[in-house]
DNA sequence: CGGAGACCTTGATACAGATCAAAGCCTCGG
DNA sequence: CCGAGGCTTTGATCTGTATCAAGGTCTCCG
């Protein structure tokens, strides 16, 4: 599927020249007209200064961009889910974040990506060409502030995750994970996880067996339930006790 | 020592009103005339828009600011060393970063600090009042870009540290620590660590005993030597082999 | 509908690093 | 110079999580 990756100037019908700020092109930033409101507005001023070039679809498991590749685009998840990770030379993997509908990812200040991004399920993303973002930000303080706010959000998450990875037990990590995903994924009382146990493990610095045992343990405690046929549909039954487990 | 903390408007001789950008007051941003060149320039445009209010001295072990406190100032280490950390409710500690001469710390986009900062040794810092930094950044894109660049540096460090905390072995972590501190601390071939084994452990997500054993192991391998009387003066004897240990 | 493969759970065992313990060393004040 | 206290090392043991292993379940596709 490598030929599906967008490369500068090779995608048929892709608009390659950027609009200058001011001559804006309005783009509806919601996935569907009825989608969650949080998806809108995250781009802030950026959505007026930059133009969304196109939507692009990635099949489950395919790479969206690789670590150390030049950062040509900024991405927003329209539908689906994305994981970003770093690898050690022997294959150990650390997932830095999960990106769900509405989330921005792949934003870089420097020239290259610092993570590899992959689609967890079939995923549609919106692409924005960077068009020397630094240059636009030099003249438009509001654009620069938007970039700063997004970067700060990422930094805050990374700082909290350092505490989790450095000092929390396996049960605390899994509890924290569920509490993090709950508001982002739960619809109609059910949390439908798009990612595998291995993905969760690589996000939490554990093995997949330990994640599975922790979930079973929480199940046994009556804190969560599994829905129907699959182990990826979780119902949180006691958020209070779950929160007490995450110190 | 709590009374030593700077509070708005209570420090005798402290200049409380900010200069507007443009009416700049030049402040030498180097610690001493002969100090390392990297200390200068880190503030970028910010050094012209903001004014350095004063220097302030903290004794070894004292708190500079606390987590969740309002962020009134930005700090730069003039001399000494600072650690920033988060605590869990039961006292487990994760150090997010060490800040040495020239480093900026305590920069927040939001209203409050996300870490506690403490002086590791007797430390002199320069304080800059924020003076609603957001407001200045709204009008001056270059200031906003400086903030973005500093935040991006912090983010890159946090991302790399997540990989270390989530997936590296104790020996790899200690090797990475030495390689990180080497260019920042080594002078005349000797690395003089200001921080204790416990600080290093809380930075690397280990115990102080494990850090000590890893250092002894590296010593036994001939990769490093301890200088004279103290265990905090380290000489790196084989950076090549040390780098090979950090995957 | 049936079979292959991916994913998940559960159990047994191993091990890296934590914990507990004690002794050596350095620092600094008196 | 001496002694108390903090820091570091080193050893013995423990334990949380990894690893190894096996079986179960779901998905997808022919």
Q: Keyphrases for this structure?
A:
homodimer; 247 residues; alpha+beta; Jelly Rolls; Arc Repressor Mutant, subunit A; 2 domains; 4-stranded antiparallel sheet; 7 helices; 33% helix; elongated; disordered N terminus; DNA-binding
Task: Explain the overall architecture.
The structure is a homodimer of 247-residue chains. Chain A has 247 residues and is of the alpha+beta class. Chain A has two domains: 2-164, Jelly Rolls (Sandwich); 168-245, Winged helix-like DNA-binding domain superfamily/Winged helix DNA-binding domain (Arc Repressor Mutant, subunit A, Orthogonal Bundle). In chain A, 33% of the residues lie in helices and 23% in strands. The first copy, chain A, has seven helices and twelve strands. In chain A, strands 1-8-3-6 form a four-stranded antiparallel β-sheet, with no helix packed on it. A four-stranded antiparallel β-sheet of chain A has the order 2-7-4-5. Chain A has a four-stranded antiparallel β-sheet with strand order 9-10-12-11. In chain A, strand 11 (224-226) and strand 12 form a beta hairpin. In chain A, helix 2 crosses helix 3 and helix 4 (170-185) crosses helix 7 (239-245). The longest helix of chain A has 27 residues, at 141-167. The first copy, chain A, is elongated. The model of chain A is unreliable at 1-41 (pLDDT under 50). The A-B interface holds A 86, 88-90, 92-94, 96, 109-110, 114-115, 134, 137-145, 147-149, 151-152, 154-156, 158-163, 165-168, 202, 204-205, 247 and B 86, 88-90, 92-94, 96, 109-110, 114-115, 134, 137-145, 147-149, 151-152, 154-156, 158-163, 165-168, 202, 204-205, 247. The first copy, chain A, binds a DNA duplex (30 and 30 nucleotides) through helix 6.
